[in-house]
Amino acid sequence: MKPYVFITRKLPDELVKPLMDVAEVEMWNKEEEPVPAQLLREKANRATALLTMLSDTIDESLLDASPHLKVIANLAVGFDNIDVPVATKRNIVICNTPDVLSDTTADLTFGLLMATARRLIESANYVKEGKWQGWSPYLLAGHDIHHKTIGIVGMGKIGQALAKRATGFEMEILYHNRSRNEVAEQQLNATYCSFDDLLTKSDYVVCLTPLTNETKHLFNKQAFQKMKSSAIFVNASRGAVVDEEALVEALQTGDIAAAGLDVFTKEPIDVDHPLLSLSNVVALPHIGSASIETRTVMMKLCVENIIRLLQNQDPKTIVNKELLSQNC
Ligand SMILES: NC(=O)C1=CN([C@@H]2O[C@H](COP(=O)(O)OP(=O)(O)OC[C@H]3O[C@@H](n4cnc5c(N)ncnc54)[C@H](O)[C@@H]3O)[C@@H](O)[C@H]2O)C=CC1
Ligand SMILES: O=C(O)C(=O)CO
């Protein structure tokens, strides 16, 4: 009997085809809506493998109810939606999609920084809404990007790709990370800083850390108060690294100048959330890695990882590496 694999979103058939050759595959039939939690639970109960989205919660109770599960391939590099320690205890391999999305996410993050600094969305709407009466010296004037200081919190793969883009704008690059990044220092001339130093010195503060117990609400009232009043905050990691109430207050009181946000604590964010009413906020619907090319490669990587695991080979990318020698 073929192993049963459940995919929690409608993906293109041609990308899933290789999996169908080795497994019985079922997919949730909607592209834009997550699978209901109860249905996921029922499917997971029979599944040997799951291909999940970052919007699916894979917690202890779901893992408890999934006795045959061998692998979960998450269509994301981030895996904060999965209880990895519990999965590891149950010998369930967790795969993610690192590297393949770093350049695409860095492009979006730098684009978001530019859109926020130069007020691109506000300006485009201004024209389309017929508000443009004529040229004037400070009409929709924003802030320079070139030769300014960017502070990157989380100098990992995406952070490094972002720093590379910042060098093209001749920016001074500061970074804060769990450990020193020699490539960033030697090849990109980035300078390591304490978190507080980075906050006080940067014109642009960009968050690219994973969401962990340590980074939850890292950007709180105190952090925003340490930033320059002209600083622009950009978050392309996970919403919960930010205390959103504190961010609203910082933007309203002028502790910081503006924010570019690709991610939110609750996704989708409620349309009446105070952040969305502020003209100095650019909000995007979590599209960091959303290019057709990159999403296709991410899907292929998930499919390949599941096939490899089902054939008792090492996956190409794994989160809980400690399981490699045991399982694969
Ligand atoms: N907006 C979007 O669509 C996307 C968001 N992401 C988010 O970006 C995150 C980073 O992705 P990668 O760069 O590939 O991961 P990575 O693992 O290569 O880099 C993360 C870096 O953050 C550092 N870090 C962890 N905890 C820290 C802390 N407390 N203080 C300072 N630094 C800390 C790590 O040392 C590491 O260098 C993902 O975990 C994900 O949450 C990733 C892709 C797309
Ligand atoms: O990969 C991730 O972690 C994302 O947020 C989407 O690509």
TrEMBL record:
Top class in the EC scheme: oxidoreductase
The keyword Transmembrane helix is assigned to this record: no
Coiled-coil stretches: none
Any Pfam family: 2-Hacid_dh_C
Domain of life: Bacteria
D-isomer specific 2-hydroxyacid dehydrogenase NAD-binding domain ranges (all copies): 110-288
Entries under SUPFAM superfamilies matching the protein: Formate/glycerate dehydrogenase catalytic domain-like, NAD(P)-binding Rossmann-fold domains
A GO molecular function held by the record: glyoxylate reductase (NADH) activity
EC number(s) from the headed UniProt entry: 1.1.1.26
Alphabetized InterPro entries for the sequence: D-isomer_2-hydroxyacid_DH, D-isomer_2_OHA_DH_cat_dom, D-isomer_DH_CS, D-isomer_DH_CS1, D-isomer_DH_NAD-bd, NAD(P)-bd_dom_sf
Domain D-isomer specific 2-hydroxyacid dehydrogenase catalytic: 5-320
Keywords, sorted A to Z: Oxidoreductase
Entry keyword annotation includes Oxidoreductase: yes
Listed Gene3D superfamilies: NAD(P)-binding Rossmann-like Domain
Family classification: Belongs to the D-isomer specific 2-hydroxyacid dehydrogenase family.
Name of the protein described by the UniProt record: Glyoxylate reductase
Organism placement in taxonomy: Bacteria, Bacillati, Bacillota, Bacilli, Bacillales
